[in-house]
């Protein structure tokens, strides 16, 4: 609890009008991916929206923040309410904040990322989600075009589940006095709001975590063989060369990964 430093500050806080500035709404979303070791597929958990706007479109689970909540708690609550899934670890990795991204209001949305063993969770639709379903990542391709001081990358993502979603999102990087990057949705593929962009951002971040971090622990908590881990990498469209610097690959005991060596 904050303690005012002086009577003047105490008076300032007592008189402060929180309605002086118009406030944006805040929502939280979770991009939850599950790895299926049997099928060797990486799958995204999406919900079909049951209400307006974008009724009938697919989206990552999420919703609005309550005033008394920490955003971590709000992300966990919304995931549980819309999919029935709880007790999964999620990392905050980005904030979506374009002024026109939601037709209802100015909405700023922190984005969370989670990776789980698909067999460990059983989603079911709830709250304002009409349906919850797993969508397999069946395509992840990139084309790049270089300019004098810029690079434009166009990504094609194919997600297959209850429907086939084909997304196209471009990222342009300009190199002038500083680096500037922006993304543009070319084809939303049946996803609500700007969630086609969220799909790309979450997949790029997940691939980085697989390359350099320990997120694979969430799939193989007891350790994995190199073959099992390679299946996960391939499901994320990563090659052996992409992940050769991962510290987990250096920690092996009896042919399996040992996280605490």
TrEMBL record:
Please report the stretch or stretches of sequence annotated as the Nudix hydrolase domain.
23-157
Q: Which residues cross the membrane?
A: none
Entry keyword annotation includes Hydrolase = yes
Hydrolase among keywords: yes
What are the protein's GO molecular function terms? hydrolase activity
Q: Tell me which CDD domains the record gives.
A: NUDIX_NadM_like
Give the record's keywords alphabetically.
Hydrolase
Which Pfam families does the protein's record reference?
NUDIX
- Entry protein name: NUDIX hydrolase
Organism of origin is Guopingia tenuis
